[in-house]
Write a structure and sequence with these properties.
The chain is an alpha/beta fold and 277 residues long. Helix content is 45%, strand content 8%.
Length: 277
C-alpha cells in the first residue's frame, strides 16, 4: 500500500477510545505529585515491573499485585533519576548547585489503579463515534491492540461494556487482542505481528463469505494497516513493521480523528459532511 492509499484495516489502542491517562494526570495534580512521575516509574520498571507482569497476564489482580505496584511507585533511585535532568539544567544554565532532592511522594497504588480503571470505562467523545462510523461503513477491518488486565470474574469490570449502555466493546472489532490474554504487551514486536496475522486471516475469511471490499481477498499486509496509539514507544514497532501510525495526543483526540478521517476518506466527525457542502 502506498502512503496515500486507503487502508484496509484500522487498528486501535483501546486507550484511544477510552484512556486512563487522564486519571494519572488528575491524581498527580490533586496530590501535588510532579507531573509525569507515575508514568516514569511504571515505564522504568519495565519489563518486569508489577504493571508489565499484570498486563502480560503473568500475575493476578490481587493484594500481592497492589503491594508490588506500590513498591514500584516508591523506588528512591528512580525518583532521583526522574529529577536528574532538572538538576543538570540548573547547573548548566543557571550556574547553581543541583537542587536538593525532595521527598519521594506517597502514592496509594490501589486507589490510583482503580481510578485509572474507572476513568478508562468512559468512551472518548471523539474517538468512539469515529469507531462506530468506521464500523457502519463496512469498508474497513477494525482491530483492537491494547495492553490490558484481567479482572476477577466477579468484578463488574470483567465485562467489556465501557462503550456504554451495556454494549460489549469487543463486538465493535473484527480482531481484539488483549495483552493479558495473549501473554504479550506493547511494545513487544511480536504482538504487532500477531495482530497483523489475525487481521489477514479475518480479511480472507470475510472475502470467502462475500463480505467487505473485494480487496479483502488479497489479505492484509502491514502497509494496509493504520495504527492509533497514545504512547510514542508503542507506535515505533508498528512503523518498523510497515504500518502507518497516528499518535493520539492527550487532550487532542479530535485532531487524531481528523487525521484518521483524511486517511480513510470517511466522514468521522459530525460536522465533517456539513463543512463540505
Amino acid at each position: 500500500m502506498t502512503p496515500t492509499s486507503r487502508p484496509k484495516a484500522v487498528l486501535f489502542d483501546i486507550g484511544g477510545v477510552a484512556s486512563p491517562f487522564r486519571a494519572i494526570i488528575d491524581y498527580e495534580a490533586k496530590y501535588n505529585i510532579p507531573r509525569g512521575w507515575v508514568n516514569f516509574s511504571i515505564s522504568r520498571t519495565a519489563p518486569d515491573g508489577a504493571w508489565q507482569r499484570l498486563e502480560r497476564g503473568e500475575i493476578a489482580l490481587n493484594t500481592a499485585f497492589f503491594e508490588s505496584f506500590n513498591h514500584d511507585l516508591h523506588i528512591e533511585s528512580l525518583w532521583a533519576d526522574f529529577h536528574a535532568p532538572r538538576g543538570r539544567r540548573q547547573v548548566e544554565h543557571e550556574g547553581t548547585t543541583p537542587p536538593h532532592l525532595p521527598p519521594l511522594p506517597a502514592i496509594e497504588a490501589q486507589k490510583l489503579f482503580w481510578e485509572m480503571m474507572r476513568v478508562s470505562r468512559a468512551p472518548d467523545p471523539w474517538m468512539y463515534p469515529a469507531l462506530r462510523r468506521l464500523r457502519d461503513s463496512g469498508a474497513f477491518l477494525l482491530g483492537a491492540l491494547s495492553n490490558t488486565v484481567i479482572f476477577p470474574d466477579d468484578h463488574p469490570y470483567s465485562k467489556w461494556d465501557g462503550a456504554g449502555e451495556g454494549e460489549d466493546l469487543r463486538e465493535l472489532f473484527d480482531v481484539f487482542i488483549s495483552s493479558a490474554h495473549v501473554g504479550l504487551r506493547k511494545p513487544d514486536p511480536e504482538i504487532y505481528t500477531l495482530a497483523l496475522r489475525e487481521l489477514d486471516a479475518v480479511a480472507r475469511a470475510k472475502a470467502r463469505r462475500g463480505l467487505g471490499p473485494a480487496s479483502f481477498a488479497e489479505g492484509v499486509q502491514a502497509g494496509d494497516v493504520i495504527f492509533l496509539d497514545d504512547i510514542g514507544q508503542n507506535l515505533k514497532p508498528a512503523r518498523e513493521l510497515g504500518m502507518r501510525t497516528i499518535k493520539v495526543e492527550l487532550g487532542q483526540v479530535r485532531g487524531a480523528v481528523e487525521k484518521l478521517e483524511q486517511v480513510t476518506g470517511t466522514d468521522l466527525l459530525e460536522d465533517s459532511s456539513k463543512s463540505r457542502l
